Amino acid sequence: MDKIRVSDITMKQLARQGDNSLSFKGKIEVAKLLDKLAVSVIEIEGIRSARADALRIKSIASAVKNSIVAVQVELDAESVSQTWEALKGAKHPRLQVMAPVSTVQMEYLSRKKPDAMIETIDSIVRACAEKTQDVEFLAEDATRSDEAFLKRAIETAIGAGAKTVTVCDATGALLPEELAAFLKNLIDTIPALKDVTLGVACADTMAMADACCVAAVRAGAREVKTACAGETASLQNVAGILAAREELFGVACPLHTVELKRIVRQIVWMVETKRNKTSPFDDGVQDAARELSLAIGDDTVSVANAARELGYDLNNEDIQAVWEAVQELLSHKEQVGARELDAIIASVALQVPQSYTVESYVINSGSNISAMAHLKLNYQGETLEGVTLGDGPIDAAFLALEKIVNRHYELDDFQIRAVTEGREAMGETVVRLVSNGKLYSGRGISTDIVYSSIMAYVNALNKIVYEEGEA
Question: What angle do CA 59, 407, 364 make, to 5 degrees?
């Protein structure tokens, strides 16, 4: 019985649509959930902003333990090198080459003639094959392509090293039986397809994408592209059908169907729950999946990998400082967990001059009034003020800080814990901000939780200002 690959394109599809509903942290969490579900391939968007997107790809690649992580390259050699540099840490990396094969898309989107497109396909697929054995060629708008040219393009891609060939019905205009006949014709006329995995991607224009994917599997396709939500085949529906009728299709579906409905529902909630544009608290993603721990004997490489799994991109000096702090803490306890590592990184990594310092703050809050924050910061000798309302004292304080610096940073995480006991207990706050795709953490300690939160935010802010040269 053949194994069917179910590929999820949820994050890639959101990026293509310009939907920013998922935060940096949310994308990592979605990838972990899909990996837990045993999805064969997790497809994520490629590199547009070199620094931010490279870190996102590295973080997801590090977080995914079993699934293939697939990233599409642009049709140039530089993109291949940049993408591979970010992706190479994945346990199962895949590079994807998508090329338009219909006359309309070739001329109006890529501005290439057929012969030039064939040369591009050959060179880019070869460049990818030099980096990894797992290369996928996606024939965009294949169902509207000239049959002879499509055959030539597929044969060129396979000859250059593609191990998976996916044909795309970009318009979603074919009925299930028409798509099945289309695929059977390709298999019959292109012998090389028998040596690679044939995949299919269907737009859901006529609400037929699920049925088309199922028909494609019966016709010989062994990889189907799905999404948890969006304008393509449904992951839940397609995987459920394939799992329920394995004996009919002659394929084995690898997904954990017991958890399928719950995990898909969780991802859909994360995607469809729009973030509050007026609040620094970006989404409701919980970090339950962060189960890493460090123990005596772990070296700097282990610490660096743990920090990378949390999303940090630390230099060698900071890694050494964090490792030493971890060893100090391990002399008093058996293990260091994710939240403790967060606090250590906030305390010792990227220590910088204080561009911003807190002069004063006033917080008004109560059961019958909106929380109000009035903050004064000193920036290079100048006093800056911000006054805002918020859903609570900390929300209002963070909004005031954003107003002062005139910039919104994604609040990746916010932690509060007591570090001493009694009525005068000290509270520790750790804030993680994202700027240009990179994580910066700050730490604050005070008997006043609001003040410790403000200090943590300002500490992280100073690191951003220093590294990005805004001071």
Answer: 110
